[in-house]
């Protein structure tokens, strides 16, 4: 039920007039524009099959949403074949479906240690309360769990509760009042749980009730190579700590600092960090990229000094066609992505509803944000993945890497025909935008695209949407792991441009976009209908 701004909360199946009204109410769920989201269903039978006792695994960790602090989503090892569901576990013990059967909740990405402990953020009640479960990667057996006291800020669709691993295997989790919960050894069942407070533990302890009710972490936490933490937070009303909405940093030494969104941007209208937009770290670790926004639709991408949070540079997030401010939606999970060359990418929505078929744009900047480069033709609720150019046989361009994005063309949104695709794009080559109304815009050149395989029962000639907000890339098999709202997990083989493998997770439904991830044993992780599935051979 693809996250797209023209999707109505009751579903895309209503008449256009009702759709236009609902667009203002919500923007976010797999099965968006014209894709055929179905009513809520229980996951298709998928009994966990027994596996032999595994040998110990040590490999590359999957640290965060998008896999790393740059959100490139690249696997460091070969993924297993998609032959069977190895194990599964709920990520929501009480899923709340809309009256039309949609699941309007973003779920946090699992993170996976080098020793193959899978850490799963779990919504643990009807209310927005959460816990973190640590499970054995090979079997799904529970190793430890901890409840979080995290309180979500006011929201429309439920934002993701994301957790993060540092390079030294500390697991960090958002808590109430802007504090961070952590355990120093994510693999150890007996590790103690401690807290960090960016504005000081004593200030928090003296006024805990007030601060818990007024200070809310509103982005995922990102950790740099040294273990320094960065995140956004929002504040409602006056508080004893004198906080206003902004960006926080907690050093690896435990010392905290923060800067208001207004001060960071130098703009009094930029009042808060964008909900759900994880900070990204430059490849040299010197810059943190964050998104701030106004109380309206517009926003800015900031480059802050990673040590001091002082402003280095900024860029307005401008629609490539109208040249007016893009829409920065509070329902999106899009995060800045930093490419291998330092370029920065961020997905936005068009400001005029349906003008670009609710696809939005993937804005593209150099590392200093001084130069706006060729945009991509899709950006809505999507963080692009990095695809090494060598993964695409026959590619003859000059770019050392390409980018993979969702490429849905939402039915009933503008001229959208529900021919929903995923795409590999060249960030340094251009073509005319494929949407006729905006064809004057030069966009990233399509290198490969592939159409979804399942007919959309609600849009003749269309196919169901791709349901992904960050897709794991496997350079070793030259493939990408992608969820669809038809209930299947697919392997997109770039050598043949085919969907070479698939496995049914559930019978499919309309739901908010979901991530894929890879464990150190090559198991693939995907979320569908409030369940995390571990898939392999």
What's the N-to-C terminus distance?
29 Å
| Overall average residue pLDDT | 91
Strand count, sense and barrel status of the largest sheet are:
5 strands, mixed
Order of strands, widest sheet: 1-34-33-32-27
Basic shape: globular
Structural class: mainly beta
Number of helices: 4
Uncertain runs are: 3-29, 31-53
**Helix proportion range:** under 10%
Q: What would you report as the Rg, rounded to the nearest angstrom?
A: 21 Å
Total beta-strand segments:
34
- Assess the beta-strand content as a share of residues: 25-35%
Structural description of this entry:
With 537 residues, this protein is mainly beta. The protein has four helices and 34 strands. It has helices spanning 16-23, 201-206, 208-212, 261-265; strands at residues 84-90, 111-112, 117-123, 130-136, 142-148, 164-165, 171-174, 179-183, 194-197, 215-217, 222-223, 229-235, 246-250, 256-260, 272-273, 280-281, 287-293, 299-305, 311-316, 337-338, 344-348, 361-365, 385-388, 401-407, 421-432, 442-451, 468-470, 472-474, 479-483, 488-493, 498-504, 514-518, 524-528, 531-536. The longest helix is centred in the N-terminal third of the chain and has 8 residues, at 16-23. Mean pLDDT is 91; it is low at 3-29 and 31-53.
Keywords:
single chain, 537 residues, mainly beta, five-stranded mixed β-sheet, 34 strands, disordered N terminus
Secondary structure topology:
Blueprint: H1 16-23, E1 84-90, E2 111-112, E3 117-123, E4 130-136, E5 142-148, E6 164-165, E7 171-174, E8 179-183, E9 194-197, H2 201-206, H3 208-212, E10 215-217, E11 222-223, E12 229-235, E13 246-250, E14 256-260, H4 261-265, E15 272-273, E16 280-281, E17 287-293, E18 299-305, E19 311-316, E20 337-338, E21 344-348, E22 361-365, E23 385-388, E24 401-407, E25 421-432, E26 442-451, E27 468-470, E28 472-474, E29 479-483, E30 488-493, E31 498-504, E32 514-518, E33 524-528, E34 531-536
Parallel strand pairs: 27-32
Antiparallel strand pairs: 1-34, 2-3, 3-4, 4-5, 6-7, 7-8, 8-9, 10-12, 11-12, 12-13, 13-14, 15-17, 16-17, 17-18, 18-19, 20-21, 21-22, 23-24, 24-25, 25-26, 28-29, 29-30, 30-31, 32-33, 33-34
């Amino acid at each position: 039920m693809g996250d797209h701004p023209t999707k109505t909360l009751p579903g895309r199946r209503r008449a256009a007039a009702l759709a236009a009204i609902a667009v203002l109410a919500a923007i976010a769920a797999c099965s968006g524009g014209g894709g055929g989201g179905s009513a809520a269903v229980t996951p298709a039978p998928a009994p966990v099959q027994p596996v032999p006792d595994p040998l110990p695994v040590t490999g590359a960790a999957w640290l965060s949403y998008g896999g790393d602090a740059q959100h490139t989503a690249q696997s460091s090892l070969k993924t297993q074949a998609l032959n069977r569901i190895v194990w599964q576990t709920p990520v929501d013990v009480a899923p709340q479906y809309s009256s039309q059967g949609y699941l309007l909740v973003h779920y946090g990405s699992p993170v996976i240690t080098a020793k193959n402990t899978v850490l799963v953020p779990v919504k643990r009640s009807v209310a927005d309360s959460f816990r973190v479960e640590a499970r054995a990667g090979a079997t799904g057996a529970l190793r430890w769990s901890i409840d979080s006291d995290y309180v979500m800020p006011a929201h429309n669709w439920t934002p993701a509760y994301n957790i993060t691993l540092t390079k030294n295997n500390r697991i960090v989790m958002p808590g109430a009042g802007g504090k961070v919960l952590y355990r120093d050894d994510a693999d150890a069942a007996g590790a103690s749980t401690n807290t960090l407070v960016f504005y000081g533990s004593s200030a928090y302890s003296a006024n805990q009730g007030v601060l818990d009710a007024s200070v809310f972490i509103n982005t995922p936490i990102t950790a740099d190579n040294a273990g320094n933490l960065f995140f956004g937070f929002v504040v409602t009303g006056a508080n004893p700590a004198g906080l206003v909405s902004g960006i926080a940093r907690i050093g690896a030494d435990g010392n905290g600092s923060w800067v208001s969104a207004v001060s960071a941007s130098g703009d009094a209208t930029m009042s808060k960090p964008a909900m759900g937009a994880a900070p990204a770290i430059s490849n040299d670790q010197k810059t943190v990229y964050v998104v701030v926004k106004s109380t309206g639709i517009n926003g800015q991408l900031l480059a802050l000094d990673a040590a001091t949070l002082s402003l280095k540079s900024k860029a307005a997030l401008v629609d490539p066609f109208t040249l007016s401010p893009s829409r920065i939606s509070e329902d999106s999970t899009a995060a800045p992505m930093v490419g291998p060359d330092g370029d920065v990418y961020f997905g936005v929505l068009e400001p005029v509803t349906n003008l670009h078929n609710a696809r939005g744009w993937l804005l593209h900047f150099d590392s200093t944000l001084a130069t706006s480069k060729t945009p991509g033709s899709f950006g809505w609720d999507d963080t692009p993945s990095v695809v090494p150019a060598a993964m695409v046989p026959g590619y003859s361009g000059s770019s050392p890497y390409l980018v993979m994005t969702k490429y849905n063309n939402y039915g009933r949104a503008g001229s959208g025909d529900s021919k929903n695709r995923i795409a590999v794009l060249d960030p340094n080559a251009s073509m005319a935008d494929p949407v006729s109304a905006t064809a004057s815009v030069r966009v990233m050149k399509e290198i490969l695209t592939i159409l979804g395989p399942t007919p959309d029962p609600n849009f003749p000639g269309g196919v169901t949407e791709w349901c992904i907000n960050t897709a794991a890339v496997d350079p070793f098999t030259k493939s990408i792991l992608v969820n669809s709202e038809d209930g299947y997990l697919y392997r997109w083989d770039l050598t043949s441009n085919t969907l070479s493998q698939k496995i049914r997770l559930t019978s499919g439904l309309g739901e908010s976009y979901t991530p894929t991830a890879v464990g150190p044993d090559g198991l693939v992780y995907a979320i569908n209908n409030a369940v995390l599935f571990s898939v392999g051979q």
